[in-house]
Design goal:
It is a single chain. The strands form two sheets. A five-stranded mixed beta sheet has the order 1-2-5-4-3. It has one domain (3-292): Beta Polymerase, domain 2 (2-Layer Sandwich). Helix 1 packs across helix 2, helix 3 (43-52) crosses helix 4 (59-88) and helix 11 crosses helix 12. It is an alpha+beta fold. The chain contains 17 helices and seven strands.
Length: 389
């Protein structure tokens, strides 16, 4: 782990715990820290860490953090409106990710929020979707277990289940099937938000993390979400409610590894008994993997990211090649039958490298460093085997 990554972890730790660390940052290191924070969606946390440690952060960081706070408040307001509409129509609902994890942070609004994910009873799923597919809101995509649309310029997803349980073991599906019967009401900023119980929230966060890690879309904020959540759970409740669920689903080793890594690499002690022991080297390996996942598709620069907050779709290229290729990319991603028919495998072998080279040409991603790819593959192999993922 290099010095910039260590600085990043120390500042994020300060933001999550309020601790003061004696840190010295050279002028040339601020830009490197900024790049890591942007692609990992942690810039407000990085700025808060600088404030806590008495470091004069770039003024642009403060401006970006302020934009994100305002954007989070706007999304919370819209989220509350949607929840009220669902309530008025006798549809039981709760929030997934977003504000349901932001409330665990010292400053909930500083946790940048993307789309709004809402879980409803499967019996009311179609009714809920129809409420928001006319007028200003319009349907965007219909996936297997959720429908995605825009409402007041914000991307919203209505879920009939938290995830596609077919991709996970039967123990996870068995426990998550009664999630809607265990909803709790908690405060996020000044808003009362219906959320999953701690046991269901733990499973939701861990499975979400696994999916993004395997899809190479992991951002470090997923890990800070876990740390903030774990710190918020009462140790007695962890032992009585959360731990038994993790054991039944086979997710306990991953939870223990994440908690151990926070102590080793971020000096954050999560007060929950661990039944699995992990070496310092493995914890470091895990955090290095979290920080090294290729996110080259995410543009650098604060101007782009601030601009994205002001437009619900961000910047869209009008280049004909880009548009045509995006359409092809969408078909390949959404037509799952292609991956199941062996006849199409040779076509996919051609398509995948073609997609890579086209993305490089149109500037959507950087060229791969194959030495890093091989190193990451070896690291993941160790992690997956150790955690039985």
């Amino acid at each position: 782990m290099n010095r910039v990554q260590q600085l990043f972890l120390s500042l994020i730790s300060s933001a999550l715990t309020g601790k003061h660390f004696k840190i010295t940052i050279d002028d040339g290191e601020f830009k490197s820290l900024e790049n890591i924070a942007i692609v990992n969606k942690c810039l407000p946390l990085l700025y808060q860490g600088c404030v806590n440690c008495g470091i004069a952060a770039p003024l642009q960081w403060k401006h970006s953090a302020s934009f994100i706070v305002m954007d989070s408040h706007r999304k919370l307001t819209v989220e509350n409106e949607i929840l009220n509409i669902l309530k008025d129509n006798n549809i039981r609902a709760c929030i997934l990710k977003g504000s349901s994890v932001a409330m665990n942070y010292p400053n909930p609004l500083a946790r940048s929020m993307g789309d709004i994910d809402i879980l409803v009873d499967e019996s009311n799923y179609e009714k809920a979707v129809l409420l928001f597919t006319t007028g200003e809101a319009f349907e965007k995509n219909n996936h297997g277990f959720h429908t995605e649309f825009y409402h007041k310029g914000i991307d919203v997803e209505i879920h009939k289940s938290i995830l596609d349980y077919a991709d996970y073991n039967s123990g996870i599906g068995a426990i998550m099937n009664n999630a809607m019967d265990c909803i709790e009401q908690k405060l996020c900023d000044s808003f009362l938000v219906p959320v999953l119980s701690d046991a269901h929230q733990a499973i939701s966060l861990l499975t979400h993390m696994i999916r993004h890690l395997k899809e190479n879309k992991f951002v470090f904020r997923l890990y800070t979400d876990w740390v903030a959540f774990a710190l918020s759970v009462n140790p007695c409740k962890w032992q009585s409610d959360v731990l038994p669920s993790l054991q039944k689903t086979g997710l306990e080793p991953l939870a223990d590894a994440l908690n151990s890594a926070s102590a080793v690499c971020m000096n954050i002690s999560i007060p929950h008994r661990s039944n699995n022991s992990f070496s310092k080297d493995f914890c470091t390996l895990l955090i290095e993997e979290f920080l090294s996942v290729d996110k080259s598709g995410t543009p650098d620069g604060l101007d782009y990211n601030i601009g994205n907050l002001l437009s619900h779709r961000g910047a869209v290229s009008q280049n004909k090649i880009s548009t045509a290729f995006s359409a092809l990319n969408y078909i390949a991603k959404t037509n799952y039958s292609l991956g199941r028919i062996k006849l199409f495998l040779p076509l996919l072998w051609i398509y995948i490298p073609l997609r890579y080279f086209c993305n490089v040409l149109i500037g959507k991603r950087k060229k791969l460093n194959f030495k890093k790819v091989i190193s990451s593959a070896k690291r993941r192999d160790v992690i997956y085997n150790e955690l039985n993922l």
